[in-house]
């Protein structure tokens, strides 16, 4: 095979990444798409290619012999169904995060991947951002010593817009928003420390969104639209204060990782600004990122070595492409995986572990903060994971 022919399931917001796969003269091309919404399919055709095959039944897409691989960009609660069906149809799979909305769903996908002998890749694009690659390189260099503590603060500005005005707002669709945004962050904590979480305790609540508005209320039809602070008149327009909303908008987790590393993660969906602030503290120093100003700071403590003579500030360069240049890279890595058997930076098992932690933390929150041990799964091959590498374009 010299060109990977890709079909897309789910042509909503995330389907904008398909443009990085659509290179009719190159080594990958988008040849079809499935979505239950004709409007979404029409928009996708206009963006990619008017002549591609489209259908409202994803099974028709899977039957096609001119499709080698499928990109699953559908809502979270459908990943398991779509991934298992695609593997059973003999397709290679790229699946957006979270892998599924339960650890059992993830295990089913991994079982099916092993049975099928096909390639499967999880869309952890944060691993492909130069900031997190650089942080990984710094930690692996040993300059801050052995990691003992990790503190992560996640300010999800625009949280209401992206997570409370559509399907994301209910536990039936997502389990909780700790599987949404946090599945990336829990994964980055695992990846950068080289250790999976073993137990978690968490507190959280629905402190701002949700309420008693009817479930079928849309902002453009609402009598409060001129005064509501969270009115949304374009794209995602369901009321953010509707009754069915039951996923926490304010979460705090503390975790213990393999090797006794302590980690915390805080996520708030009603902050005015958007940013992720990570601190890793090691036995010789600490590392902190500043994604507002595109900098990483390394501070070393008194260690009797040359390292203590200076602190270092890294200035991140701007990379072309969405998500800080991560999306074109992760798309290319999926093609490289299938065509050239090149191991990507992620594994399905890493996808499974971030879901397992997100689900355990949700259980803890909803039962008053009890300590929940993380089910380590039956697929954990070893702790020396292949994905622990620095990205080589
Ligand atoms: N890695 C990232 O940076 C990133 C960013 C955004 C979204 N995502 C992930 O991508 C996925 C999609 O998110 P989104 O924001 O595009 O959502 P979306 O709601 O905009 O799009 C989902 C699409 O799936 C379609 N769909 C629903 N049921 C379907 C079915 N049975 N068959 C086929 N299509 C169906 C919907 O009509 C919609 O067009 C989510 O899992 C999300 O977590 C990842």
Report on the architecture of this protein.
It is a single chain. The chain is α/β, with parallel strands linked by helices and 393 residues long. It folds into 2 domains: 4-124, Rossmann fold, CATH 3.40.50.720; 127-209 and 245-323 and 347-387, Dihydrodipicolinate Reductase, domain 2. 28% of the residues lie in helices and 22% in strands. The protein is built from 11 helices and 15 strands. The protein has helices at 18-21, 38-47, 58-62, 79-88, 103-116, 130-141, 159-164, 171-174, 181-193, 326-340, 348-366, and strands at 4-9, 28-34, 53-55, 69-72, 92-95, 120-122, 147-156, 197-205, 250-257, 262-268, 274-282, 285-290, 295-300, 312-315, 372-373. The strands form 2 sheets. The chain has a 9-stranded mixed sheet with strand order 14-13-12-11-7-10-9-8-15, with helices on one face. Helix 4 (79-88) runs parallel beside helix 5 and helix 6 runs parallel beside helix 9 (181-193). The longest helix is centred in the C-terminal third of the chain and has 19 residues, at 348-366. The structure holds nicotinamide-adenine-dinucleotide (NAD). The site of nicotinamide-adenine-dinucleotide has 24 residues, from loops. Nicotinamide-adenine-dinucleotide (NAD) is lined by residues 9-14, 34-37, 40, 58, 73-76, 78, 96-97, 123, 125, 166, 180, 323.
